[in-house]
Amino acid sequence: xxxxxxxxxxxxxxxxxxxxxxxxxxxxxxxxxxxxxxxxxxxxxxxxxxxxxxxxxxxxxxxxxxxxxxxxxxxxxxxxxxxxxxxxxxxxxxxxxxxxxxxxxxxxxxxxxxxxxxxxxxxxxx
Length: 126
What we know:
Elements: H1 11-62, H2 72-75, E1 88-92, E2 102-107, E3 115-118, E4 123-124
Antiparallel strand pairs: 1-2, 2-3, 3-4
C-alpha cells in the first residue's frame, strides 16, 4: 500500500518563517523610528519658521517684537498640521524684546533635543 501524500507545512518550516520575519522586523523597526523622528524634527523647524515670519509681520507693524502676553498663538496665524498630535511644543525663550526674539521647540517625545530659532534666522539644533 502507498501512503497518501499530505499537503501543508511542517512545524519546523513555520518556525523558520517566523524567525525570518522576526529578524527583518528587528532591523526595520528602528529604521522606521528614525525616519519618523526626522519627519517630526522637520515639522518643528517649519513651525518655528512660520512663527518667525509672524514675528517679522508683527515687527513691521510696530517696530518691536514685544507682544502682549508673549503668546505664540497671537503671532502664529497658521495652524501646524501636527497641532493635534504635537511632538514638539513651541515657546518663546524669555520674552520677546524690542529688537530680539528666540523661539524654542521642545520635544514631547524622545525625538532629538530642543531647538531654537532667533530673529536673525540662526537655527540651533542638537
